[in-house]
Amino acid sequence: MLEPVMGEYARWYLEGFARMVENPRAVTTAVADVTGSPAKTSEQRAAANADASR
């Protein structure tokens, strides 16, 4: 079912997401270290840029 849309890499892509759920990456301070302010969540970015998406 995914094959026509995602091509031959569909299984690889979904298995990669499954591995991220099973073994999540550690949270780092990299964004804050570089920018001087903490990273924003996807929800925060969406709310801040909602007008640009309309």
Which secondary structure elements does this structure contain, and how are they paired or packed?
Elements: H1 3-6, H2 10-22, H3 30-35, H4 42-48
Q: How does this structure look, described?
A:
The chain has helices spanning 3-6, 10-22, 30-35, 42-48. Helices cover 56% and strands 0% of the residues. It is an all-alpha fold.
Rounded to the nearest angstrom, the radius of gyration is: 17 Å
- Provide the helix percentage: 55-70%
DSSP helical segment count? 4
Topology as a string of helices (H) and strands (E) = HHHH
Into which percentage range does the β-strand content fall?
A: under 5%
- Rounded to the nearest angstrom, the distance between the terminal CA atoms is 32 Å
Mean of residue pLDDT values:
88
Q: Structural class, judged by helices and strands?
A: mainly alpha
Task: Choose one word for the global shape.
Answer: flat
How many beta-strand elements? 0
Q: What's this model, at a glance?
A:
This protein is mostly helical. The chain is built from four helices and no strands.
Descriptive terms for the model:
56% helix; mainly alpha; 54 residues; 4 helices; single chain; 0% strand
